[in-house]
Amino acid sequence: MDRKKKIIKRCAILLLILVFGSGCGKQFDTETEDDYTPTDENLIVVGVSQVGSESVWRTANSNSIQQVFTKENGYFLIFDNARQKQENQIKAIRSFISQQVDYIVFSPITEFGWETVLQEAKDAGIPVILMDRQVKVSDESLYTTWVGSDFEKEGELAAQYLAELVEKNGRTKEELSIVVLRGTDGSTSEIGRSEGFHKVAAEHENWHIVEEIDGEYTTTKAKEIMKRVLWQYQDIDVLVSQNDDMTFGALEAMADADITPGEEGDILVISFDAVKSALELVEEGAISVDVECNPEQGVYIEEIIAALQAGEKVEKAYYVPEKVFTKDNVGRYLESRTY
User: Fold this and answer.
1) Neighbour tally for 182: CB within 10 Å
2) Which helix (H) or strand (E) holds 77?
3) CB 265 within 8 A of CB 259
4) pLDDT of residue 41
5) What are phi and psi of 189, to 5 degrees?
6) What span, in angstroms and rounded, lies between the C-alpha atoms of 58 and 282?
7) 54 pLDDT band (50/70/90 cuts)?
8) Using alpha carbons only, how large is the chain's radius of gyration in Å?
């Protein structure tokens, strides 16, 4: 694109930011129009639609984006919080298209329902990078690549570590009652973690999943559910909670019911995400296993954009590195944890 067209494009973006900013002030969390000047025409414009801010993990994920895509690094970031609503994300993506951004990045709330808007982005020639969660579309060329966690592997690891705990505590022949707090129905993380856990659990005839229920990845919902579950079932042996925020809510419900979590307590707790406050509970023994879901994906997305800017081909999927934390190893990582 020549300099004249670039300037016209950037002016159009500025005008639209002013319009959208005055018309729906809560929709976009972005740099103010005063931060944008005609001398910024060489900045790469990235529109990001985030699921929401429902968890500590999600906040860390958003921070990783906002810390990387700065003017100092050569970017102009337009950041949208969808507040857990797919219609808000579709609206944001269409706004990004109308603003002629250079790249669209978004974390889809659910896997389905994106065909039309992604086709619009493709027709506009704007590469789309999926972050954290995936989409199910009939034509995979509608998006450029995906960056995130291997959720099915996470689920498998949770079950494998549970099997090790059961063996360690001499309970391999016991009948185990398991409650699973799932994440948002239809989200990639929920689907993958559930499939992975079930795959391994099926190998253990004495593991009985007595209930699986959507905790919406929130502390409040999980506490409400766990309170009811503890009243309904008197012999729960294991809680598998698909994110730390739900785990916090479940632990609050246990405390209210005078139930002790941990290997030496009443219920073994398996969690996901591995935020610092959860790792502290691993060190204390309240959480027995926490499977990491790495939120710091901004740097990997920037690497992809740099490759695309250079005209290089990119892979269709990139997995971020992750660990599993137990009381045996968590002490080595707590001090350096930033989220």
Assistant:
1) 23
2) strand 75-81
3) yes
4) 74
5) -65, -45
6) 20
7) confident
8) 22
236, 109: one domain: no
d(CA 16, CA 148): 31
Cβ atoms 291, 256 nearer than 8 A: no
Q: What are the start-end ranges of the H helices in 257-315?
A: 276-284, 298-309
Residue 180's nearest CA partner among 204, 226, 213 is 213
| pLDDT tens digit sequence for 103-146 | 999 999 999 999 999 999 999 999 999 999 999 999 999 999 99
With contact defined as beta carbons under 8 Å apart, do 39 and 69 qualify?
Answer: no
Supply the pTM of this predicted model.
0.83
Cα 288 to Cα 269: distance, rounded to the nearest angstrom: 6
Neighbours of 98 (CB within 10 A): 15
Cα–Cα distance measured from residue 9 to residue 99, given in angstroms and rounded to the nearest whole number: 8
Whether 28 and 126 map to the same domain: the answer is yes
- pLDDT of residue 279 exceeding 90, the answer is yes
95, 107 contact by CB (below 8 A): no
Q: Which of 293, 311, 333 is the last residue of a domain?
A: 293
* Same domain as 173, residue 92: no
Query: SS3 of 31, please?
Result: coil
Distances in Å between the Cα of 213 and the Cα atoms of 32, 234, 332 are 41, 17, 34
* Cα 122 to Cα 126: distance, rounded to the nearest angstrom: 6
Closest CA to 105 of 139, 74, 137, 65: 65
**CA dist., res. 266 & res. 259, Å (int):** 6
Domain that holds residue 138: 3-149+295-322
| Chain centre to alpha carbon of residue 86 | 15
pLDDT of residue 40: 66
Of residues 203, 113, 119, the one with CA closest to residue 166: 203
Cβ-contact 217, 242 below 8 angstroms = yes
Co-location of 275 and 171 in the same domain: yes
Rounded to the nearest 10°, the torsion over CA 85, 75, 68, 53 is: -20
